[in-house]
Give the backbone structure.
Amino acid sequence: MEGNLTKGPILKTLTKLALPIMASSFLGTLYNITDMAWIGLLGSKAVAGVGVGGMFTWLSQGLASMSRMGGQVQVAQCIGRGEREKAHKFAQAAVQLSTFTGLLFAAICLIFTRPMVGFFQLQDAEAHAAAMSYTRIACGLIVFSFLTVTLTGIYTAQGDSRTPFLANLVGLGLNMILDPVLILGAGPFPKIGAAGAAIATVTSQAVVMSIMMLGVIVQKKENVLKGIRLFTKISRECLEGICRIGIPTAIQGMAYCVISMVLTRMVSGYGAEAVATQRVGGQIESISWNTADGFASALNAFTAQNYGAKEMGRVKKGYRAALWTVGIWGLLITAVFIMFPRPIAEIFFHEPKAVSIAIGYLIIIGFSEAFMCVELTTIGALSGLGKTRLCSVISIAFTSARIPLAIILGGIMGLTGIWWAFSATSIAKGIIFAITFFWITGNNR
């Protein structure tokens, strides 16, 4: 059957599903890097402002993951058990919940933009103005992003990762055209800086969402998204099932972002260049992060379907195959960050102080890349088993440790100590998550 992940060669099945997702995730990385590269031409103050605004879109993704993860896991497990009608009900509930939470988040951000941006205590007026304009636009229309990630999750649960990839490819092309036109101005279009980056992003997200919705209509193959109605009462059983799986993931994602906000405020004491480095460095790091997260999403659907079909042997073999793949990728990123930090930094920064800070960040954070890839992949596998609460506890506990560790190391080594706090906790999480998966599956024969 189309989209059945419980049959066939494990590595081939997993890779066929994973490659388009990894490519889609890589496109997501290019979205962010393209924005930052063009904004970088306006200076580090504009980059710092967009970086702060980007913190709130990142926070939104934690909330969006509730409907995405809950919907994806429940739909995949239903398909594994052969319950297609129930899978359709879960898909409908996930889309409805995604729409509601996206609109709610947008309303809150539009009402409280000034105090939210004020939390970061940006001293520079240019950076503050960029953060305000970016946040209002990017967060005010965030519902497109919410629906995009949820639709992607439900497509993936059915074994279709190609459609989301094609949609994201079109979106990236549009974003790359709009960025320079809106940020720097061209022809009849005025130069609007940070606001232009936000407009380009939300326009691209709206197009990606529309393509995936159109795909549901035009595809001849069976799709659990067919016939979905937004304005009907949400099934209580489905809502509870999605929230049971999705809420721990949402808490984990939002807690991670809040912790990063606190750390960004600490970093802001070292100047706009340090804030810009942290935000741009995170986007550069997403080359490994998004790729691993893409593979984790594929592994999540693979694990959930096989768990639903009671095929634990395939679950374990799939995880080992994924672990080798992302581990090697992480080691390659480590080598690039440590050996070539200056050429990478100079793509985004043009002031000597900012370049110097970015080089230090890339070298230190580079040591943790393989471990971060292992962490994300394992979270995908454990979530497919329904263990999202356990993932949330481990992740929040070790990520929270960054704050006291940054205070201690920052007092000893300054800004470098804060970067080491990031790297050390990522290494610890990678090791702990891998041990946890083998322990759980070893007891579940």
User: Anything to note?
Assistant: The radius of gyration is 21 Å. The chain is about 85% helix and 0% strand. The chain has one domain: 10-442.
